[in-house]
Amino acid sequence: MSESGLPEGLSFERPIFEMVRKIEELKNLSVATGMDLNGEVRPLEEQCEKMTRKIFAGLSPWERVQVARHPDRPLTGDFISRIFEDFVELHGDRTYGDDRAVITGFGKINGRRILLVGHRKGRDTKSKLSCNFGCAHPEGYRKALHKMKLAERFGLPIVSLVNTPGAYPGIGAEERGQAWAIAENILEMSRLKVPIVVLVIGEGGSGGALGIGVGDRVMIMEHAYYSVISPEGCAAILWKNGEKAENAAQALRLTADDLHRLNIVDAIVSEPLGGAHRDHAAAAALVSEAISSALDELSGIDTELLLEARYERIRHLGQFFLGAE
Amino acid sequence: MGFAFRKKKDMPSGLWTKCRACGKMVYQKQVQEKLSVCPECGFHGKISSAKRIEITLDPKSFEAFGEEYLPRDILDFTDREPYAEKLNSTQGKTGLTEAAVVGTGTLKGMRVVIGILDFSFFGGSMGQVVGERITEAVERATGEGIPLIVFSASGGARMQEGALSLMQMAKTSAAIGRLRDVASAPYISVLTNPTTGGVTASFAALGDIIVAEPKALIGFAGPRVIQTTLRTDLPKGFQTSEFLLEHGFIDRIISRDVMRDELARILEYCLA
After folding, report:
1. Pairing, β A267-269 against β B110-117
2. Sign (positive/negative) of CA torsion A128, A134, A138, A143?
């Protein structure tokens, strides 16, 4: 945060914050001197909104990745406290431990009982470290699966909030079968007998995202991204230069619009003007509405039909040439 | 990490070759006779999908399917060269249409569906065609109620096809979910050097029985990624077949020369 209490912001946000500060100054002046400056303030506010709209409409894929990783962006915990009433956190994978990079528990959204699973990134340094910046270990994926099976047994729909740079790459993670944990989650999520709504709220980092990312409705927030590999990782491998992340972000087609066009996501959840980090309450209201209406659509569908539709949704992901055999 | 045998320039060409795993010079003819296994250290080098079929199935029993699915550059992806061009040149160089070869055949008289990832085609990576062909293989085994054997060798999901590649993990895994309901369709996953990333974290890790060739590199994150992240040296033998056996993630380690016999032995117990 800067001295004025406003975030420093990303480079493309600076002109916006500059104008917001000027408007604040004018308002303060008006209060201090008793002068009526409404005539000056209002056009400035309109101009500021117009500029914000223009800047955010024209963001490059790499800039969107920056918004998705914004330090003030609402996290799973923020959505839990704003949307899910009476949250009962449930811990542990019953095998190894309790991975803090994944949170699971019962909760209610608009009165409807659900099971929530989500990645946790942490906000301050201490909490970031304790959840490995949102990078889950195998026990995180196994915890999610254990709780999702409870949901299946008790007939609770599942809401999954995805926000991870990727599954944790480390010695312990490999020793405990990272690939095995993710694969079993993907398989089981494709056939759990309750509705599953997935929302990518920030970063959809590869297999680590997909490990809690299979469902009947897969949605993404306007400025979130979902990718097979991080732009930095892709640049390092294909361009042999990690600095080409901007090019990789462009090539990977990882933005919400791209993913919607490719049928990877079913819907895009709008964000408040200037991004979800500018207004957590407004962002949460939009997310709540999107999740509730997806749950409404799915409730009451016969289980067999639900599973058939889920399979077909996954089955038809992919395009290719059909040659003559 | 040794992936293959390499010719050495200052030696008479074609006679000797250097093992990338142990670094020893070995007689090339002997390597070929031993199916690309180093006679010095036992490292299992790469072999082609055609060779794999030849040493696994009964002669002339293989019938490919899924060849009609051909790769397309949906995303208009260009890194240092356009993906579409690289696809064309790789097809020309390898004689393969994609990284997965799938089909039916018999193994000691047992009818099976077989799938093989060929590392020579984009590092065996899984894009939309690999996902489709493997899914077809799974569905064929499910539909006919016969065993499925998949040999993996892959760097993971294919980056040039973006998140659509990632979705192939879901597609193949969902199909295996249905296969698991069919008792007469056991799935043996065979992990070979190297198997990493999105392939390990989907169909390769989902075998009813999982076996690996000796000393293969197998894992989720590649060793270089882990090393860079942790800024530390990795323990000796980390992410090898032997490491996975010790940690409980694979059933057996089987050398290439007895793979066919051992697969048949296992299948006989799984079938009525």
Report:
1. unpaired
2. positive
Residue A78 sits in the same domain as residue A164: yes
Does residue A321 fall inside a structural domain? no
Is CATH 3.90.226.10 the classification given to domain B46-271? yes
Inter-chain residue contact A176 with B247, CB threshold 8 Å: yes
Last residue of some domain: A58, A74, A90?
A: A58
Query: Does A202 lie in the same domain as A117?
Result: yes
Residues of the domain holding A53: 11-58
Q: How many domains does chain A have?
A: 2
* Chain B residues in contact with A204 (beta carbon < 8 A): 163
Comparing C-alpha atoms, which of A18, A55, A25 is closest to residue A40? A25
A54 plus A128 within the same structural domain: no
ipTM of predicted complex: 0.95
Q: Which of the residues in chain A have pLDDT under 70?
A: 1-8, 324-325
pLDDT of residue A320: 84
Q: Is there a contact between A171 and B235 if contact means CB atoms under 8 Å apart? A: yes
Q: A 30-49 residues with CB below 8 A of B?
A: none
In a domain, A2, yes or no: no
Q: How far apart are CA A199 and CA A221, in angstroms?
A: 7
- Are residues A47 and A71 located together in one domain of the fold? no
Output the domain CATH number for residue A144.
3.90.226.10
| Global model pTM greater than 0.80 | yes
* Least confident span in B106-115, B211-220, B221-230: B221-230
8 Å CB contact of B164 and A248: no
Distances (CA, A) of A118 to A8, A11, A84, A89, A143: 28, 29, 13, 11, 11
* C-alpha to C-alpha distances, A194 to A111, A301, B17, nearest whole angstrom: 18, 10, 57
Is residue B71 exposed (0-12), middle (13-18) or buried (19+ Cβ within 10 Å)? buried
Residue count (chain A): 325
